[in-house]
């Protein structure tokens, strides 16, 4: 899994850095702002124009974010992706990326959605075991997920 961030999860006073950004107590280059969410330019971008959408309220992970807020977060990301395509920034495609938990690459325990402009040769890759799985394995996984809903 690619490492997307290398910044402290808290401010010098111990506050969640994304909470501090959401309340205006920490600096950020805003691209979106409403009562529930902010969109900012990523401090350490994968590519120029890499944005983050984050709720102002603290939610450590996707499971703790109310479903309606999750839907709103993706709607904002969709709007920002369209805006990126209208700029003169290099943007042939877009990735939406949400790392949910440390093992997934989430370094700041405040749910956030990456909006990453992509172009051929940008160097961003996800290396995984992409082999085709058996129908039996897929059916077993589907059964487990259905049972856990």
Automatic annotation (TrEMBL):
Q: Where is this motif: Histidine triad motif?
A: 110-114
Domain HIT: residue ranges = 17-125
Q: Which residues form the active site?
A: 112
Q: Which GO terms describe its molecular function?
A: catalytic activity
Q: Which residues form the signal peptide?
A: none
Q: Which GO terms describe its biological process?
A: nucleotide metabolic process
Please give the SUPFAM superfamilies that the UniProt record associates with this protein. HIT-like
UniProt-listed PANTHER family: ADENOSINE 5'-MONOPHOSPHORAMIDASE HNT1, HIT FAMILY PROTEIN 1
The protein's name is HIT family protein
């Amino acid at each position: 899994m690619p490492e997307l961030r290398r910044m402290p999860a808290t401010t010098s006073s111990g506050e969640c850095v994304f909470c501090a950004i959401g309340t205006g107590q920490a600096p950020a280059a805003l691209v979106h702002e409403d009562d529930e969410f902010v969109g900012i330019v990523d401090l350490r971008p994968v590519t120029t124009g890499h944005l983050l959408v984050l709720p102002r309220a603290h939610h450590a992970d996707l499971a703790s974010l109310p479903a309606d807020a999750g839907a709103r977060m993706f709607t904002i990301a969709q709007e920002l992706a369209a805006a990126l395509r209208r700029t003169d920034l290099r943007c042939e495609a877009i990735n939406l990326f949400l790392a949910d938990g440390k093992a997934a690459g989430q370094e700041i325990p405040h749910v956030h959605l990456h909006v990453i402009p992509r172009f051929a040769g940008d160097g961003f890759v996800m290396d995984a075991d992409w082999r085709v799985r058996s129908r039996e394995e897929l059916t077993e996984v589907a059964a487990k997920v259905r049972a856990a809903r």
